[in-house]
Specification:
The protein contains 8 helices and 17 strands. It is of the alpha+beta class and 365 residues long. A 6-stranded mixed sheet has the order 7-17-11-8-10-9, with helices on both faces. Helices cover 26% and strands 28% of the residues. A hairpin with a 5-residue loop joins β13 and β14.
Length: 365
């Protein structure tokens, strides 16, 4: 019976594989959107970031014959960060080599089966690395910390706390009478600008609850009637990177009443939810009760450092990239391991040019 079924389905067999968040050609991840400046050094393992301890003030004038005003130089603080690494491997043993791989069939040759198996393993590793980078990128803007996690979500002691000013972690209570999204945006903007955050190309990424407040507010709806018409006129001026970034949705180009700088109101909704490790509870990439603010003109670094991989001659070499693959084989029993590695950190040049607001929302019964 099994053989008859196999023969019947062989001609019409189609392999449907759904891997969430597999990037299409021409698109980029949210990590490259938020951290566009690449700092790649395969031979290094650390990253240096100098932090100025004060703002630069203006010059003053003097009378004829007076000496020049002394401007002392304060060198700031130099920080050396160890760049964390991730490394995972998938074993291909006798059992897996004999198995019917999804998309194949029982009589498929071993070489064809192994090629299919290898392609699927590489795809799953690539997607896992990508979604991890995306979540980390969002979280750095949210928290001011780069927090790599270990097995089962454990702290591995390599968190990079960039010491963001506490005023940039704002809160807002929507359960209070008169509370509204315009006031919430205004409060976050005020905290952000107070720390000299750039006002040009200002972006706000909203979680689901914030987006709902924005979309359903009567005042916002009226303001957007004009704003969205203008958005159609200036659509060619909207940053192209919005459309290129996987999962990023432009809701509106919006000017909050009383604020000069317009804001791009965005949501980040890639397919599925993020699962941090095997067995972990799925979570939204962008928490529903938060919104974050930043500018496209601010500098943020995607720092990539080298990992050790085996070259074609079996010797260790250093390589850097979003994902670096190699393989090696144990001889008895024969088990081939496909290994993926990466070593990176996501670092804003000035962490105080990012801000977050956490909202308290009415409970919907």
């Amino acid at each position: 019976m099994a053989e008859q079924l196999n023969q019947f389905t062989r001609r019409i067999k189609t392999f449907y594989e759904l891997i969430y968040n597999n990037l299409l050609p021409g698109t980029i991840g949210i990590d490259d959107f938020l951290f566009p400046v690449k700092d790649v050094d395969p031979e290094s393992s650390n990253f240096a970031l100098d932090t100025l301890v004060k703002e630069v003030h203006g010059v003053v004038f003097r009378k004829r014959g007076e000496q020049s005003v002394v401007r002392p130089y304060e060198p700031g603080v130099g920080n050396i960060y160890e760049v964390p690494r991730t490394s995972e491997k998938t074993p291909i043993d006798e059992r897996l080599r004999d198995a019917v791989v999804a998309g194949g069939e029982e009589t498929e040759s071993m070489s064809s089966r192994q090629a299919r198996l290898l392609a699927q393993i590489i795809m799953q590793h690539t997607v896992a690395h990508a979604t991890t980078r995306w979540k980390l990128a969002i979280d750095v803007i949210r928290t001011g910390k780069y927090s790599p996690y270990g097995l089962d979500g454990n702290d591995i002691g390599l968190e990079i706390d960039l010491q963001r000013d506490a005023t940039l972690d704002d809160t807002y209570d929507f359960t209070i009478t008169g509370a509204n999204i315009n006031e919430a945006l205004s409060n976050l903007y005020s905290a952000y600008r107070a720390m000299n955050g750039a006002g040009d190309e200002l972006c706000v990424i909203m979680g689901d609850n914030y987006a709902s407040m924005f979309e359903t507010n009567d005042d916002v709806i009226e303001y957007r009637k004009a704003n969205d018409s203008n958005l159609l006129v200036i659509s060619n001026l909207v940053p192209e990177v919005f459309n290129k970034t996987h999962g990023l949705r432009l809701i509106s180009r919006y000017r909050v009443p009383g604020i000069v700088d317009p804001m791009y109101i965005l949501m980040y909704k890639p397919q599925g939810r993020f699962v941090q490790y095997a067995g972990a509870t799925a979570q939204d990439f962008m928490p529903a009760n938060e919104m974050i603010m930043f500018s496209l003109s601010s500098t943020r670094y995607k720092v990539m450092r080298g990992v050790d991989v085996l070259g074609l001659d079996g010797r260790a070499i250093r390589a850097a990239g979003d994902v670096v693959f190699d393989e090696y084989t144990d001889k008895d029993p024969i088990v081939t391991y496909i290994r993926s590695q990466a070593r990176y950190a996501l670092i804003p040049a000035v962490v105080n040019h990012t801000a977050r607001q956490t909202g308290t929302f009415p409970v919907v019964s």
